[in-house]
Amino acid sequence: MQSQTNNASQPPRxxxxxxxxxxxxLYSEVLKMEGFVVDGATTLDQxxxxxxxxxxxxxxxxxxxGNRRSTDLLREVLPHLKETHVVMLSGTGQYQTMVDExxxxxxxxxxxxxxxxxxxxxxxxxxx
Length: 128
Description:
By secondary structure, the protein is an alpha/beta fold. The protein has a single domain (13-122), classed as Rossmann fold, CATH 3.40.50.2300. It contains 5 helices and 7 strands; from the N terminus they run E-H-E-H-E-E-E-H-E-H-E-H. The protein has a 5-stranded parallel sheet with strand order 2-1-3-6-7, sandwiched between helices. Strand 4 and strand 5 (68-69) form a beta hairpin.
């Protein structure tokens, strides 16, 4: 996975996987304004392809993608995302224990505070 390396002189790259296109656009727009390179995916398959093609400082993913859970993809790819921080989003706090068990770095409850999201992305990409 992650066949392309991330050049230190390039801005940090973030993948946003969310089945609500309006939220993908919102998160992408505000993160791009902060200088990040952002890719968006609305399906697990799109996210898998992007994860195979690029190195990401941060992978932001919603718990539910259509009628599937992103934990299916995470269980598959997490062992290969050694230098990628994973942030799970959900409107339901009950999933926090599950995502902690599979190795997700952070859990954010929806609705997401945009300023908090930006601050977290800056912190994680600086440590990545």
